[in-house]
Amino acid sequence: MTVLKLCGTTSAGDAQLARDADYCGMLVGVDWSERSLTLEQARQVAEASGVKNVILLCNPTAAFAQEVANVLRPHALQLHCRERPALVSELKELLPCEIWKTVHLPSLDGQAGPSAYAEAGADALLVDSVDVSEGFQRLGGTGKVGDWAAVAALKKKIDIPLFLAGGIGPENVADAVRSVRPHGIDLCSGVEMRRGHRDPEKVKILVRRFRETVAEISELSCLKEEHSEE
User: pTM of the entire structure?
Assistant: First the structure.
C-alpha cells in the first residue's frame, strides 16, 4: 500500500491537518527554509501530529542529529542535503529511529548517488526536485514536478522504499501514484495556501484523491491475483 507524507509542517494546527496522512514531516535547523523550526517549536508540533513524525535535517553533524532524535523521538530522521553516505551509516549505528535520505533529480552537486545511500543502510529514499528560480538551490517545497519516468526507473534498481516528491498536489496526486507506484508520496507546497501555511481544503481533497487511487490500484491487483489463480 502506498503511504502519504505531508512535510513542511510549521504549527500544531497544521500538524492536526496531517492526521489523515501516514507521516507528518517537520524541518529543524534548516536555515534557508521559511518552514524551518527550532527544536522546541518542533517538539510542540510533533506532540500535536497524532501520526508518525519525520524530522528533516540539512547537513547536520552526528551530534545534532542525535540531539534531535533524543528530544523528538521521531519515526525517522530525513537527511535532505549533501550528507555523505558515511553519515547515514553512522546514524544507523547511533540512533533507534529510521534514517531516510533525500536524493535530487537533476542530481545535486556534492550529493552521492541513490545506490550509495541505499548501500550505506538508508531505510528509505525520497526523490525530490531542485528549483533555482529564486537565485539559489531550493531543495524541497519547490512546487516543481520532477521526472516521474526517471523515478520509476530508479525504483526498479533500488531495493528499499522509495518516496516520490516534487510538485505534487490535489490535481496530480492520482497520476503520480498510478505512474510511479512508489512506496510513498511526499509533498509540501501542494497543500499550502502560502509558504509554510497549510490549506485545509487542499489537504482534504488531496487525501481523498490519494486514498481513492490507492484503493483502486489495490482492488485491481487483487482481481489480477484472483484471475491468475484460476
Answer: 0.91
Coil/strand/helix, residue 230: coil
Q: Rounded CA gap, 175 and 15, in Å?
A: 26
Contact 148, 167 (CB under 8 A): no
Measure Cα distances from 197 to 14, 29, 52, 200, 210 in Å.
7, 18, 20, 10, 21
Nearest CA-CA partner of 162 in 128, 121, 210, 124:
124
Report which residue type is found at 135: G
Phi, psi of 163 (to 5 degrees): -100, 140
Q: In this structure, what C-alpha cell is assigned to residue 34? A: 521559511
Residue 168 amino acid letter:
I
The DSSP code for 160 is: S
Q: Which residues pair with 41 in a beta bridge?
A: none
DSSP-based three-state secondary structure for 1? coil
The number of residues making up the chain comes to 230
| Helix/strand/coil percentages in the chain, nearest 5 | 45, 20, 35
* 105 residue type, one letter: L
Residue pair 3/22 in contact (Cβ under 8 Å)? The answer is: yes
What are the tens digits of pLDDT across the range 150-180?
Answer: 899 999 999 999 999 999 999 999 999 999 9
